[in-house]
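BUG: 3D viewer hangs when loading the predicted structure for this chain

Environment: internal workstation, default settings.
Expected: structure renders.
Actual: progress bar stalls at 90%.

Input used:
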Amino acid sequence: MSPARRELQRIPLALLPSPLMPLERLSRHLGTGALYMKRDDLLGRILGGNKLRKLEYILPQAVEQHADTLITTGSFESNHVCLTAAAARMLGMQPVLVLMGDPRGLQLTTNRRVSALLEAEVHVVEYREDDPADRSALSDRVAAKVDEVTATVQARGGRPFFVPGGGCCPAGATSFADAFDELHRQMTDLGTEAYDLALTVGTGSTFAGLWCGIARKGADVALRGVSIARKNPRCATMTLEALREAARSLGIEPPPDAGVLGIDDAFLGDGYGKPTPQCRQAIALLLRHEGVLLDPVYTGKAMSGVLSYIREGKLGRRPLVFWHTGGVAGTFDMLHESEAR
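Structure tokens produced before the viewer hung:
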């Protein structure tokens, strides 16, 4: 067993607790048991999003080190990148972003436009999604660019602090172990302690943190992850790595292998940032029945998986919570693209 957890500092950025919303109209439409949505799209900064919880636990380290510059990485539509840029400005720091993607799409995303309003310094690592060789070298090229940018900031007298992409680090995952406690209190107040919990899986640290939160409490909660970025075994393996790091810091025994995590890659479609027809249908269904916006990159794909599970009778009758991790900016991008056609 790992040593006991050292209490992490936290900078309050989010409006907590986020609402737990019953999806009564949707559950009636589907003829299923109780459905709920954990609304981390309503955390109070820009368009919300779960990355804000992670930044609350990561950024005290930057303040402790007297950093004046935050450097992070992500795609052009990354919610993490946009929220990190906003948090940097809120703390009096300069945001520096290393973005990856096709440069022709650089100015097209809502999050990129918000980052421009924040006067973030932007560096681009170009790659083509449809080129396997280009993608295989991407992480090394991004790391090299981060090293180069860090050296440049230091050379001009700055004090940089690097925030891992997606907030994927033990501190970021720990935020979601604590977030599970928040959700479980809400469900317990409703008289429910046994339920299923579904969410999108990207870098894996949100899933990892929730898994640790469930294990720490010994809760009767089945965690279901829907990959929106990578096929298995890579997605499950990355998530297990994040989970092991988080479990070590929290003094929790991790699972023996990635196979027991139950992360589903069947709804990924053609890859990250490429919405499937089922994803678009899920977005429309939630909007029509509950007035809630999902997005085509993250939550729309995850919800398409949940709807499939319900329709195929794979969930039983236990209550189910869908964790809305944010990503609403991507919906605006999708709408703009539809108008342009």
